[in-house]
Design brief:
heterodimer, A: alpha+beta, D-Maltodextrin-Binding Protein, domain 2, Dipeptide-binding Protein, domain 3, 2 domains, seven-stranded mixed β-sheet, five-stranded mixed β-sheet, B: MetI-like fold, two-stranded antiparallel sheet, 13 helices, 6 strands
Chain lengths: 562, 351
């Protein structure tokens, strides 16, 4: 999932990550499970409401997903805990994770009995079918046509949402308590897709149109208020009884409130004063020193499975030349870029596509002085100049495209200076954050060098490599073409396809293949990968039991304020 | 009808103003003498000239004093202070060490006012920024004045349909909230990735000409109106009618008779307009729709400093002070010019 910037997570499309392994991912010790006192109100603040629709099958922001995971459930879930365990798929409304049948094209789920929605209705298998049909019928679900069209009947539903009929693809048997999914082809990421809010189960009868407050769910909380101009309020769902601590543990606070309308500066001050318990937005850069010196016990820093990068357009001069792309990669001082982002405690330089501790990740950095360790150490200007001279692209005009957000623009300005030093005629093209990403994606605009970021949707190498650099992800003349480098190499694509296929039955073997794909793509230098960012949580003194899930970030309901 | 008598009102008039000793001196010479006697206006003029001079000396300061390129990032750079090598961007403190803070004012030749978050010398950028702000401010005021003057002369002199069409056009521009119009134009033109192409003329998106013309354009009606009023009135004066009777051409009447009589109004308005256009440029640049980075103007530097208000307030304060001083100097100078060129207005104001 692509994000605007770490400092603008309101518009972040997506989620966090498979994170650190042994060190667990946080700079602080993590509590292993919820053991805090229950009661009280967890007061949180944010600059604004989650962008887009409040509808759980439409909204695609971390901000709302952090709340939806405690109000709703899917058939499966990411284990609700910190560390790498938090990337594990566990059964939620289903009694167990099913085995693939028919070559990964069929899955039979047994639905738990006795679970009730917050409106008192009992959960039935037919609600599952209703939910998936609604996903297509509302017509605005961003990933319906790319993630869920693999269900038999899904493609037809994408074409004519109003008459969507998944009776062949999602077979519900209320009497037997089962739901059987039939897929058109094996999908190694199908379980991940069932564990995110688009696929959270809603009661039959939920309107097949966008709703302005999330409908009843089965989680420990329910939405009592959703006012985008004021606040979101969640209160306890009295019909909830804990059935799986791993999938949906009982929460601690009685109420969770998120207030809107403050600047990030004001959010910091409120948390410092104890008026708020947590700020959704990252603290602004000029307050970082203050909070890291005066409030260090209230700060948690966690690495994310995300990458910030500049994409070359490999079909437009001068970067249709491999040597030119590699030259710029060698010249890039990634430490300087880390400094712009907030310093070495907030980001780690990288040269490759996959982030650390991700399936398929193996440290690899050919674009550094003294390569070999897999880590970036310093730029190699001599080699860069040699490569660019050999490319014959010196003197070409290059527009460095970023948005107008301060950090992003600063990164762009760095590259304007660097490219000029390397002999190009570079200038900055800073566009409004609303249009910059679609503008870069559209091949008609012939953007030469574009800033972007990507935060994982779920822990799978294909979510980076295939989505961002696969041939199928380049859609000419479209504003929705995530392969902004326009990179497509048939031998590498063949490797990706093999890895995807192998992932259905042998995820570990597939990850070895993804490792090779990551290396091959990095060698072709379609990007200058900059760094892997970290995330700051700033909490009030009274908050106990902080847990950071690599998938959902701060687990709000597991914190205790009593 | 009551007759206005300055002495009775306690107003002391100069000899020239009483009409006692004006023989042999042109109105311009008289105005010059009045201006020279206005110490406050002269001080303001001196301050403005000084600001212009130091701003245009920016390359000298950057190359020979600060030894820096203020348009290039220096993120990993260092500077020597009291024999110690110090990072230009310094890592945050505490165990967590979060954030990077630019070096503060050193009060030495290098990084006199500190660095911004790109590690660039703020003092050098403020001087370069002054150059851009003044170029745009003066340029757009001149642009607005020339365009307004031409339209006002044509509309006021010919009257009738010509006046009606031009005046309604000006009303149309006037009817838009000024900043909203400027922001709309700037958003379209400056964020257009490939700049602006009109026929064979291409202006790149980061050219200073775009904010200059936008700002000049939105202020045209503000100058047009008072001048048109004056031209309408002058058109009926005897000396113009005498010119017509003698068969003088329209062109000669406009440029030979009317223009000299409205020139003083334009001169009085000019410093006030420059002050206004500098403020507008700063506002647009602050909103990222004026001067484009890595170029600097006082507005863009204030924007750079906004992110550093808590830790490095000088980044925003320094260009802010320069704007205040420049605008203040121009306003005082404008008042002085008005008093010098139109002493009756001074009398009216004082009365």
């Amino acid at each position: 999932m692509r994000s605007r910037s770490l400092f603008q997570l309101l518009t972040l499309i997506g989620l966090a990550a498979l994170v650190l392994t042994a060190c667990g991912g946080s700079s602080k010790k993590k509590s292993s499970a919820s053991s805090g006192n229950s009661g009280g109100t967890l007061m949180t603040v944010a600059k604004g409401a989650p962008s887009g629709s409040p509808d759980p099958q439409i909204n695609y922001t971390l901000q709302e997903w952090q709340l939806l995971i405690i109000s709703h459930d899917g058939l499966l879930a990411f284990k609700r805990t910190s560390g790498t365990e938090g990337t594990k798929i566990v059964p939620d409304l289903a009694t167990e994770v099913p085995k693939p049948e028919n070559g990964g094209k069929t899955y039979v789920f047994h639905i738990r009995k006795g679970i009730k929605f917050s409106n008192g209705k009992e959960l039935k298998p037919s609600d599952v079918k209703y939910t998936f049909e609604r996903l297509f019928k509302i017509g605005q679900s961003p990933n319906a046509g790319t993630w869920y069209n693999v269900i038999v009947g899904g493609d037809a539903c994408v074409k004519t949402p109003a008459t969507c009929n998944l009776s062949q693809g999602v077979v519900a048997d209320d009497a037997a308590g089962t739901v059987t999914f039939h897929l058109t082809k094996g999908d190694p990421e199908f379980f991940d897709k069932l564990a995110v809010p688009f696929a959270f189960i809603l009661p039959t009868g939920t309107p097949n149109k966008e709703v302005q407050i999330p409908p009843p769910g089965t989680g420990p909380y329910k939405f009592a208020e959703y006012n985008p101009n004021k606040q979101i309020k969640l209160v306890r769902n009295t019909n909830f009884k804990e059935w799986s601590k791993d999938a949906q543990p009982k929460g601690n606070p009685d109420e969770i409130i998120q207030k809107f309308g403050l600047s990030a500066e004001a959010e910091v001050t409120q948390v410092e004063n104890g008026q708020a318990d947590w700020m959704f937005d990252n603290p602004p850069s000029d307050r970082l020193n203050e909070i890291s010196t005066k409030y260090e016990d209230q700060v948690h820093v966690n690495p994310l499975t995300a990458v910030w990068y500049f994409a070359f357009n490999v079909r437009v001069p001068p970067f249709n030349n491999l040597k030119a792309r590699q030259g710029v990669n060698f010249a890039t001082d990634r430490n300087a870029l880390v400094k712009i982002y907030g310093g070495p405690k907030l980001a780690v330089p990288t040269c490759q596509i996959l982030p650390p501790n991700f399936p398929g990740y193996k440290p690899y950095c050919p674009y550094t002085k003294n390569p070999g360790s897999g880590k970036w150490t310093a730029p190699d200007m001599a080699k860069a100049k040699q490569l660019i001279a050999a490319s014959g692209t010196k003197g070409a005009a290059v527009k460095v495209n970023t948005d107008t957000v301060e950090t992003d623009k600063a990164l762009g300005l760095y590259f304007v200076g660097l490219l000029n030093k390397l002999g190009y005629k570079a200038s900055l093209q800073a566009l409004s954050p609303d249009i910059q990403y679609p503008y870069c994606q559209n091949s008609k605009n012939k953007v030469q060098f574009c800033w972007s970021t990507w935060y994982q949707d779920y822990p799978a190498a294909s979510d980076f490599l295939n989505i961002l650099l696969g041939c199928g992800s380049f859609i000419p003349n479209s504003n929705a073409s995530p392969n902004i480098a326009e990179f497509c190499m048939k031998p590498i694509q063949a490797q990706m396809d093999q890895a995807l296929q192998q992932g259905i039955t042998d995820p570990s073997g597939a990850n070895t293949k993804w490792e090779a794909v990551d290396k091959a793509v990095t060698d072709q230098a379609p990007w200058v990968s900059l760094f892997n960012p970290k995330y700051i949580d700033f909490l009030s003194k009274r908050v106990k039991g902080y847990q950071f899930s690599p998938q959902w970030y701060f687990l709000l309901d597991q914190a205790s304020v009593k | 009808m009551a007759v206005f008598e300055p002495e009775a009102e306690g107003i002391v008039l100069d000899a020239e103003e009483t009409g006692g000793d004006i023989v042999g001196r042109s109105p311009w010479a008289l105005a010059g003498r009045r201006l020279v006697r206005n110490k406050l206006a002269l001080g303001a003029l001196a301050l403005f000239v000084l600001i212009v001079a130091v701003s245009f000396a920016a390359p000298l300061y950057a190359n020979h004093v600060a030894d820096t390129n203020p348009f290039e990032s220096n993120i990993s750079g260092t500077v020597t202070i009291d024999g110690k090598t110090v990072d230009v961007l310094q890592q945050g403190g505490g165990k967590l060490g979060l954030g990077e803070t630019p070096i503060g004012p050193t009060w030495r030749s290098q990084y006199f006012l500190g660095a911004d978050n790109q590690g660039r010398d703020v003092a050098a950028r403020v001087l370069y920024g002054g150059r851009a702000s003044l170029e745009i401010g003066i340029g757009s005021a001149v642009f607005a004045s020339v365009v307004a003057l031409i339209f006002a002369l044509v509309a006021g002199f010919f009257g009738g349909w010509t006046d009606a069409i031009i005046s309604r056009l000006m009303d149309l521009i006037w009817a838009f909230p000024l900043y909203l119009l400027a922001i709309s134009l700037a958003t379209v033109l400056l964020t257009s990735p490939n700049g602006l192409t009109i026929s064979f003329v291409h202006v790149s998106a980061d050219s200073l000409w775009i904010p200059l013309v936008i700002i000049g354009f939105v202020y045209v009606p503000y100058i047009y109106r008072p001048i048109r009023g004056q031209v309408l009135s002058l058109r009926e004066k005897e000396f113009v009618e005498a010119g017509i009777a003698q068969g003088a051409s329209n062109l000669r009447l406009i440029f030979g008779e009317v223009l000299p009589n409205v020139a003083s109004t334009v001169i009085v308005l000019m410093p006030l307009m420059i002050a206004t256009t500098i403020l507008t440029e700063s506002a647009l640049s602050y909103l990222s729709i004026g001067v484009q980075p890595p170029k600097a103007s006082w507005g863009t530097i204030i924007q750079d400093g906004q992110e550093l208000l808590y830790t490095r307030p000088w980044v925003a304060i320094a260009p802010g002070i320069m704007i205040v001083l420049t605008v203040l100097a121009l306003n005082i100078l404008g008042d002085g010019l008005r008093d010098a060129l139109d002493p009756r207005s001074k009398v009216r104001v004082k009365a």
